[in-house]
Amino acid sequence: MRYLILSDIHANWAALQAVKAHVRRKRFDRVVFLGDAVGYGASPNQVLEWIRSLGPALDAVRGNHDRVCSGLDSAEYFNRFARQAATWTLNHLEERNLEFLRSFPEGPFGLTDDVAICHGSSVDEDAYIFSAHDAQLAFAGLPHQLIFFGHTHVPSLFMLREDNGKQTLKVRLLSGRRIVLDLDPDRRYLINPGSVGQPRDRDPRAAYAILDTDQRRIYLYRVAYSASVARRRILNAGLPPVLGDRLLYGA
Length: 251
Ligand SMILES: [Fe+2]
Known about the structure:
This protein has 251 residues and is an alpha/beta fold. The chain has a single domain (2-249), classed as Purple Acid Phosphatase, chain A, domain 2. It is built from 8 helices and 12 strands. It has a 6-stranded mixed β-sheet with strand order 3-2-1-11-12-9. The chain has a 6-stranded mixed β-sheet with strand order 4-5-6-10-7-8, covered by helices on one side. Helix 7 runs antiparallel to helix 8 (241-249). The chain starts with a strand and ends with a helix. It binds fe (ii) ion.
């Protein structure tokens, strides 16, 4: 089985279109979405219509922006710009897309006996996994060998190995146009494929991954797209300009 893995699209239709074009010749059976379809960007309806069109081929968990932008939660913990974007999104979502957004389940969610997905962490959908300590908590929260997460917008990998009760944890940031990871059956993995629509690792290219469970292999890709088009849409929508500017730098 091959899974296309997407996270943190954040209503960036230009970035999602570039990813769709990039995967056109790659085979995948299902699409996995790790949350934050909307918020920040100016194309929430297009993004949600595409995700909805996947029908039963989709496995998804909700992100914090999905919750707030659909009115399921307040924006009190958001900064000023995220709050403005959430209000704008709620006011611009078509009814059927709003309903669809509200239907995203809370993670974590087990895809298979070995693979699970969550938005922030396996123990808290709003928690960030940046440090080795964050990763330890996330590994302890689920039994799965491989856990995909989003939320930080930084492509990253945490590997856990246990030898006679002694745990070794390795951390790696994943940068580059194409990375191939072969899964070792004696290790556990936490992997963030990066963000489609608002990368924050100083690389403005859209990020996504493909998991091949037969080959036990993960491919991570970065795809150039026109961030200036996404930025222009944000400015034209009257959203805070900083939300457009940051796309140019991947910040
Ligand atoms: Fe996000």
